[in-house]
Design brief:
With 252 residues, this protein is α+β, with helices and mostly antiparallel strands. It contains 6 helices and 14 strands. It is globular.
């Protein structure tokens, strides 16, 4: 079944939901019930319990931003190549923001979208395995579009409206994002991993600069060097030379 649906275009069909707890939960439930296929996109005008990385909540005001989850056929990828998919989704978000002349946009490892030192988007990818085979992924993407007031608990958010002074139509921009995702997915399928990896390194947040990170209770300075092909953050002059996702926290 996946070989057939992998020919579908990401964003077709594009399903609008007035309200849902989480687009990722909604999409994953459909996958598990065999009611979803590659390319299906679920967009919520209001997400009451959006999911972020490491169990965090993604805060978004109703009708103002993008809360989008897309279903991706990963049957052509080894489970060891999860970072390839993460790069693909991150770069698709970069493509979208560049189209709006946001040239100071970068990817904060592993896949937060930053403008200068402020977060404009986040990505959460959840996988569905069939036996030992990586069959599906649900890529959840949150982008701040029109919101200008954020909870005080969020330290450094920013929206496209704050950056550009313009208002955006969330559904239209979400559909544009689907086009970007489809192009990058096709690139990945056509053995474009090396190109994706090179571009990801080019857009890496704070590359070559000194930053402060925290590992457990220890805060330390280091210089961001690059990212390994399997997704570890590589640094110099730090506690260690490499860190896996979940082992460090950025102090910005």
């Amino acid at each position: 079944m996946s070989a057939f649906f992998a020919k579908s275009t990401i964003g077709q069909p594009f399903i609008e939901l007035s309200e849902v707890d989480s687009t990722n939960i909604y999409a994953m439930d459909h996958l598990k019930s065999d009611l979803a296929a590659h390319g299906m996109a679920f967009f919520a005008h209001h997400q009451s319990a959006g999911k972020g990385q490491q169990g965090k909540t993604w805060h978004t005001r109703p009708g103002e931003n993008i809360a989008l989850s897309v279903v991706l056929d990963c049957s052509f990828l080894s489970i060891t190549r999860q970072f390839s998919l993460s790069m693909m989704v991150s770069l698709a978000c970069m493509d979208l923001l560049k189209s709006y002349s946001l040239d100071e946009t970068t990817i904060k490892w592993p896949n937060d979208i930053y403008w200068r030192d402020r977060k404009t988007g986040g990505i959460l990818i959840e996988n569905l395995l069939r036996g030992s085979k990586w069959q599906w992924a649900v890529a959840g993407i949150g982008l701040n579009l029109n919101q200008v007031n954020f909870p005080e608990s969020l330290h450094n958010p920013v929206s496209l409206k704050q950056i550009t002074g313009k208002d955006f139509e969330p559904v239209m921009v979400a559909k544009e994002l689907c086009v970007c995702l489809d192009k990058r997915y096709t690139q990945l399928k056509n053995n474009g991993n090396a190109e994706l990896f090179s571009e990801y390194q080019t857009h890496l947040y704070k590359k070559g600069e000194e930053v402060k990170l925290r590992s457990g209770s220890i805060a330390f300075n280091c210089i961001i060097k690059s990212v390994s092909e399997t997704g570890e953050l590589l640094v110099s002059d730090g506690l260690r030379e490499s860190f896996r996702f979940g082992e460090i926290e950025w102090i910005i």
